[in-house]
User: Fold these one by one.
Assistant:
Number 1:
Amino acid sequence: MTTLLRDAELAAAFDHGARAYDRLVALNPGYHAHLRRSARRLGLPDGGAGLRVLDLGCGTGASTAALVSVLPKARVVGVDASPGMLERARAKRWPPGVSFVHATAEDLTTARDVPEEAAGPYDAVFAAYLVRNVTDPDAVLRAVRPLLVPGGRLAVHDYCLGGRRRDRAVWNAVCAGVVLPLGTLTGDRDLYRHLRRSVTEFDTARAFAGRLRRAGFDRVRVLPLPGWQTGVTHTFLARRPPYEPGGTR
């Protein structure tokens, strides 16, 4: 059985996979539209005017593009641990309010050398296809919460099975019939075998909602996405409480 990739090993796999990543995700029906839908679900006003948004785990910039489309007036900072993915993201054309930083979620709250442009606080954090890939999801969620202003919003967009047998069967069928064969053709089989297992061995949607609450978020909502990904991919919305025990507004 394939071992899940973690930390530097996973970043290296994404570095290698970056060259074909955009072409592969473009074959996924609804991939970009679903990212835009999750970005809209943040519910930020006035096109994000005057707001800062963190795109955590931005990869090659697909999630960044979704945020820019929905929030053209916001300042968006894309952060990723894979230099190869960031290289692809930076090579694309972006409006002046977009920047990219090489860092992990934990770096943003603990490292002293994080560029000023990436330092919090943020009005919202968007994390697509990230949390199930990290070694310690709870630590990452705890690191995200103080990056938000009090009352700031979090949207997690990810493959997270709904809990029905059908959901698991659909995911396994898509991986066996499409994802793994394409990953093999591009020379990235280990990365996409990791992708398959990272979903089947991670939380159900209900369990992940509980994980968000335990990390200190409130107003947690779980919203499905349409098409074949119903029951497979979800938007999770949450908020850093405006008032926290022992803290200030």
Number 2:
Amino acid sequence: MQRKAILIGATGLVGQHLVKQLSELYDTLIVIARRPPRYINASMRFYQVNDFDNLAEIFASVGADSKTDAFSCLGTTKKQAGSDEAFRKIDHDYNVNFAKLCQDKGVENFFLLSSMNADIDSRFLYNRVKAETEQSIMALGFKQLVILRPSLLLGKHKGRPLESFGQKAFKLISPLVSESLSLHPISAKRVASAMAMSAHEVYQRNKYRSEPAIQTTDIIENKQMLAMTKVKK
């Protein structure tokens, strides 16, 4: 069986690592982005979209189906977006619209990058919108929805000075901090690995299933991602 994956957010901190990992895991990887990802191989199909408001036009020619797994690493910050409304549009509306378009194509498995602090009652816009996005995609009823909630992401954050400062501070104390702590920062590459590993696990779980799959939502918290991707010394 030819396995396919479709991804948005491929040029972000986690997405750029996920592109390579999915390319090795799937026969075909469909990438939809404003610019080409850093990693490209022969099995990749790249669709350039200048405005995610027009995503439906791209989907008209995208060959996604029930054998395709969908991944979203799309996200931003209020500062990068420019306003509360623009941030919500990118983090919530674009993600939910992508999920709906995938579902219309028959996609059954959806993998969403969220945040450890996702909370519908949070006083912080970022956390509330992350939670709203989770809930909106849950409501679509994918057969398998996997939500990953990382803590502070380690990597080069362009235009995110607070997160860059947090990383520098963490490097000073990291030898004293155990990965067993749920708030332990995690590298973007390890989050991508956890995402790819989760997809492979879902595939293996359903490979020989004889009865119809039931709707399932799995939430993978930061601590679990750290354990999944721990490198033995």
Number 3:
Amino acid sequence: MTTPLFTRTDAALGEFSLRPVDPYGDAELLHRWVTHPKAAFWLMQDCDLAAVEKEFARISADPFHDAFLGLHNGTPAFLMERYDPAHRELVGIHAAEPGDVGMHFLSAPTDTPVHGFTLAVITTVMEMLFADPDARRVVVEPDARNTAVHALNKAVGFEVLRTVSLPSKDAYLSTCTRDQFLATRGDHR
């Protein structure tokens, strides 16, 4: 088992941690998650297992893109991707600044939702990203129709800049600085 790169304890829900995705060892699990109807905005609904392996192997080999498996109390529970918006996803759409880091996250589909879980996941993701002292601002581009994630983004400090047209969706280009995130946590350094 791979050692987590980042761990955070949530007072109500316990331990959240992230480790690098193993493109082959995690493929079956990730395939179940990304093809589930609740993961429609992940845009991998029609992928077979081989396509999921190929996509995560591509991400693993990309110097500007990483994927992390999130664990809740030691059990796989979410997925996070980090990318450099100067080189991936938003090239030509967003004028990336030094310290910008792009992010996607997906909570695993479940039939037994836990109140506050997804907020704890995005908080963990943001804390991991800002644990890097070079990270100054997180950039996201959620589907404009994904109202649930817009509420979560707002809760951790994201500000919608504008709607942008991407090849697979219309998206709300949004950013969150370290200070905006800390303010939502009650930290006004």
